Amino acid sequence: MNRSVWTALALTTGSVLAFAGFAWPLLASAVPADAQRAAPFVAVALVPAAIAAVALALDREMHSAKAVALLGVLAAIGAGIRIAGAGVGGLEAVFIVLILAGRAYGARFGFLLGLLTIAVSSLLWGGFGPWTPFQMFACAWVAAGAGLLPRIRPRVRTDGAADATSARSALAAVKRAGRLEIVMLAGYGIVASYLFGLIMNLWFWPFAVGAGTDISYEAGAPLGTNLASFALYSLLSSTLTWDTVRAVTTVVGLAALGPALLAALRRAKLPAAR
């Protein structure tokens, strides 16, 4: 099995295991009652193990000193931004760095950057807790997703015009493609902001709400019942507030800084970028 196939397999396996850790409230109803009580502890133990497996596998892709140095610099920048915004509800400016870096250097680089950014910021800020591995994977998926978005290539008309006219046409096509790319990234930032809030709510939702309410988790209840309760809980607790502020912050940051930062990142070409 070659390196690329092994890396893709490790990334997929680790992400599936981590998602199972996030989604335990929806999966626990399929197991016996005794196992339901153990599910939260299994989930918390599973996610760090998945992180270690994925990080070890993906480290083989970071085979150049330039890639390692750039990963370290961007992780430090992202960690600093995250710490600076700590305590300000929903202002996740770190998403701007993750999305642009994932877009510039590919999904695998973005995945590692998401993991390391949360790890470094949690270490420096003293914010380690049972939520940390979940944040690491969620941010890794945000950055990796930007690298998986479709490429936008400039469409240059070739009608036999003069060289100067052709050059202007090519330049205009590149600018249009650049604007479309930023619009696409901004749209992705909105979706990622809300999905991040949803998935981060999911794993601790049963702990956050007591029993007997319309938004409580009910072990053994039909999947549709728990999904409806979870949707209402998320809507009231984060979707209308934290997640919306996060989405607005991400869109404004990408619109204002995206073109210049994306161009700067792409000038530092990496052999491992996909």
Summarize the structure.
The chain is mostly helical. The protein has helices spanning 3-22, 24-27, 33-58, 65-84, 94-105, 107-125, 132-148, 163-208, 223-239, 242-267. Helices cover 76% and strands 0% of the residues.
Protein described:
The chain is mostly helical and 274 residues long. It has a single domain, classed as Arp2/3 complex 21 kDa subunit ARPC3 (Orthogonal Bundle), CATH 1.10.1760. Helix content is 76%, strand content 0%. The chain has ten helices and no strands. The model has no long low-confidence stretch (mean pLDDT 83).
Q: Which key features would you list for this structure?
A:
single chain, 274 residues, mainly alpha, Arp2/3 complex 21 kDa subunit ARPC3, 10 helices, transmembrane
What is the architecture at the second tier of CATH?
Answer: Orthogonal Bundle
Would you tell me which CATH topology applies? Arp2/3 complex 21 kDa subunit ARPC3
Based on secondary structure, the structural category is mainly alpha
Global Rg? 21 Å
Taking the alpha carbons of the first and last residues, their distance comes to 19 Å
Q: Mind sketching the topology for me?
A:
Elements: H1 3-22, H2 24-27, H3 33-58, H4 65-84, H5 94-105, H6 107-125, H7 132-148, H8 163-208, H9 223-239, H10 242-267
Helix pairs in contact: 1-3, 3-7, 4-5, 4-6, 5-6, 5-7, 5-10, 6-7, 7-8, 8-9, 8-10
